[in-house]
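Much of the work behind modern protein science is quiet bookkeeping, done one molecule at a time. Below is the pair of lines this work produces for a single protein:

***
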Amino acid sequence: MRILHLNDLYDPRIGSSIRQMYQESERLRELGHEAAVLSVTQDTGLLAGATFGEQEVLGSRVFLAHSDYNPRWRGWVGLDNPRTRAALAAVLDEYRPDVIHTHLIHTHLSYAALAAARRRGAGVVFTSHDVMTFCYQKLTCFHGGPAAGGELRDYPAHWSKCIPCQRLRFRPGRNAAIRRILARDVDRFTVVSDELGRAISANGIRVDRTVWNAIRPQRRLPTEAEVAAFRVARGLEGAQTIAIGGRLHEQKGVGQLLQMVAKLAGEFPRLRLMVMGKRDVYDREFAPLAAELGVAERVVPTGWLDGDELQQAYAAVDVFVTPSICFDTFGLVNLEAMEHSKPVVATVFGGSPEVVLDGQTGFIVNPFDVDGFAGRIAELLRDPERARAMGAAGHRRMVDFFTIERLTDEFIEEYDLAAAAARARSGTARSRA
């Protein structure tokens, strides 16, 4: 079978979901299938001045189109982007995929790509990694915020909520158009967590299946000597270390976490918070709050990490935390911490409760309850044996349920169903002719 992944992002250093796409492609090739990627770049230099090019990334053939515009128009361009039409048509003509597997396409490749794939006779599988089928950004309005204690689950989008949030970015009819396109042009619609499926279903979109995210385990984990050297280099030697990783944003709960550190500081004088994300973002958006709370010297901002250094960072952690106050659809960083046998204290919002088992592999806590979240972190810092036991249980859970082999097998089932639907359409068309 020949599979073409569509994704607005192609650089595996950007995030875990991009790495997962390449890991699945690698596994598909191991099983005798073909897999390639169509993506976009804003760097015309990468294409040597052309509007379309090709390169290899982690063993995958990657077709690259050029697309760049002011993101305020995403509500319009995300439905149909004229900048990528020719590239999509050329790739469909040359690669002739049996199945199109779309991931993040709401900014550049656009929902119009689904109709183009269907017209060319391909089966179409759509994986929703986020809430962008009905929301313009990270979903934050559903829980009611501090006023409601984060207890609401108000998922349906409505102009009365969206217009005050998006203002001039709001495009009337966007969500209705997306629903029509998905219903018409997608053979199989999958989500990365059951909770994401509930949110999407609440907005009138058919969900066929949950396929949990996964990782391909590292071929080699860091040695004790490498981890010790990392700790020394980062000023973590002898420290009790908690960490947050990924994109740094207020919606990821970084502000809440700094408040937690302030509450924990008195009991844990050796406590350090490792912030594994872009240093300039931390310095600009969160360093002032850390100083205001009196915890600036307890924070170790590493900057963006990848490769061996990222693995060493995970291995150097005592407790990993994901205190997101937005709808965190899955939290692949949870799995990456679990691979290193680390207990995780994670948000109640989104898919983390499906990954982290409360009281077994870590804890699930409402991050608006700063005292409660900090208290769970404290329990693990006070009891290293319990923390290690939870981390070991998390590692077993990762191996049992979240491997790339399981994910690929499930997607092959989806590809077969989508390809069969495409063949049925073709047969119907011939019979009508």
Summary: The radius of gyration is 22 Å.
